[in-house]
Design goal:
Blueprint: H1 2-13, H2 16-22, H3 30-38, H4 46-77
């Protein structure tokens, strides 16, 4: 269940097309903002793009770290032979 929850959170967090279609100019999701940073006239500024991607990654990594012990316990519970 924990592995499934982690997959759902990661896929929902990174949903680009849904965010691009249903967001407005004043409220955008992080993947949409990063995608817009790639299409600028001045050229691609890789530093701010990597910084934005790192900031976007922090909540997902925090969730994985918080649920890691439950994930490992579930994976090893199925490997025990009686």
């Amino acid at each position: 269940m924990v592995a499934l929850a982690l997959f759902v959170v990661v896929f929902a967090w990174n949903e680009y097309v849904f965010g691009m279609i249903f967001t407005t100019r004043s409220a955008k999701t992080a993947p949409v903002v990063i995608g817009e940073m790639l299409g600028t006239v001045e050229g691609v500024q890789w530093g701010p793009i990597f910084a934005a991607a790192t900031i976007q990654l922090v909540p997902v990594v925090a969730l994985v770290i918080a649920l890691q012990r439950f994930l490992i316990a579930g994976l090893t519970a199925g490997a025990v032979k009686h």
